[in-house]
Amino acid sequence: QSVLTQPPSVSGAPGQRVTISCTGSKSNIGAGYGVHWYQQRPGTAPTLLIYGDFNRPSGVPDRFSASKSGTSGSLAITGLQAEDEADYFCQSYDSSLSAYVFGAGTKVTVL
Amino acid sequence: QVQLQESGPGLVKPSQTLSLTCTVSGGSISSGSYYWNWIRQPAGKGLEWIGRIYSRGSANYHPSLERRVTISLDTSKNLFSLKLTSVTAADTAVYYCARDGLAAADYWGPGTLVSVSS
What we know:
The complex is a heterodimer.
Chain A: E1 9-12, E2 18-23, E3 36-40, E4 47-50, E5 64-69, E6 72-77, E7 86-94, E8 99-102, E9 106-110
Parallel strand pairs in A: 1-9
Antiparallel strand pairs in A: 2-6, 3-4, 3-7, 5-6, 7-8, 7-9
Chain B: E1 3-7, E2 11-12, E3 18-25, E4 35-41, E5 48-54, E6 59-61, E7 69-74, E8 79-84, E9 93-101, E10 104-108, E11 112-116
Parallel strand pairs in B: 2-11
Antiparallel strand pairs in B: 1-3, 3-8, 4-5, 4-9, 5-6, 7-8, 9-10, 9-11
């Protein structure tokens, strides 16, 4: 069982908005550690989508946005496109474990 | 543009040592304030952080693997390495190396599949 909890799957039609939650605890997200988000398409390595709670690396479309509140982070994809179909993982640091931890991942399906 | 590439045996026998290297190009692993990570992913499952080493040489490991893991730098070859001892089938996974910049893993290698089987 992952330290960070994500929904197994979300889906939406092209053009719609979907959100993915990442729920942690007081020893990770709630302690103020940054939440990072990665996109992983089948058969490829993850790529960084969001770092430090809400920052986009250069080259990441502004359709991707993220926020954090309390012990949870959230990733939003607006204007959903077929190419957004992938697995999405959140990551943070956990002070109880002294380790970086990932969520189990959320599969986004574009209907 | 920084690029990372994992290499090593694709098959390791149970109880033996898994050894992988990550060759970095497009930048020196000993310059800047970067951490160099190993992360793995069993088939169909999520990501697991194994550990990381700072560009100045200090390393941190996941507590569940700490007794079996060593990550080291070879600045002369611009690579870093992973050694995981006493492997079992549970260590079968795709192993990724990645750089920590921006406080997150901003550059990843393509990954290498390591199977543990006799």
